[in-house]
Amino acid sequence: MTNKPSGEFNPLSLPSLAESVVTALMRQPVHPLPPEETFPGSGIYAIYMLHPLDPYTRLADYNDPSSDRFDWPVYVGKAVPHGSRKGGVEFEAGTGRAIYTRLRQHGNSVAAATNLDEENFRCRFLVTAPVWIRLAESVVIDRYQPVWNAVLDGFGNHDPGGRRATQHRSKWDVLHPGRQWAEKLADPETTQAQVGAEVRAFLDAHDPD
What we know:
33% helix, alpha+beta, 7 helices, 6 strands
């Protein structure tokens, strides 16, 4: 055994900055979905499912409101300021309500689903400057592998407007029907049972710790 150092610590390296973002987000308080009060700012957020039913039952091992434990988000997203400049570097989070607006939209999606209960969802969020948002989102998703990001695409989708013949309902809308605009899209290529099996297999094979 030697006392040889493992390497020089650089607090401004991407791994160090990424770790600080994850830590900062997970230290934020947990709120209902959407939060009860509006607030300004852009940044990132995590959504948690409580008392989950099949195919999400494994999440119950990590998200327990009785012990104030929220360790495995079901979804992680970002909210950039409205009208954010393209190609510019912005160091202020702004005064708009970008995060709150996205969380309110997500709350509406959960409420519209016929087999989800909005009372079983919580969220936490981190207000940050736009320059950090995309890096922060990718780092948190990579760390926790939220199932609605990794397997069940479509939760964050908006109404696409007119239906297109090649546009199918997302896997999220297949497993959680109810959003009226999604029902107008083409029939899905997979069944609800198949999507549920994908979710179950993913959660069984992953661990956020």
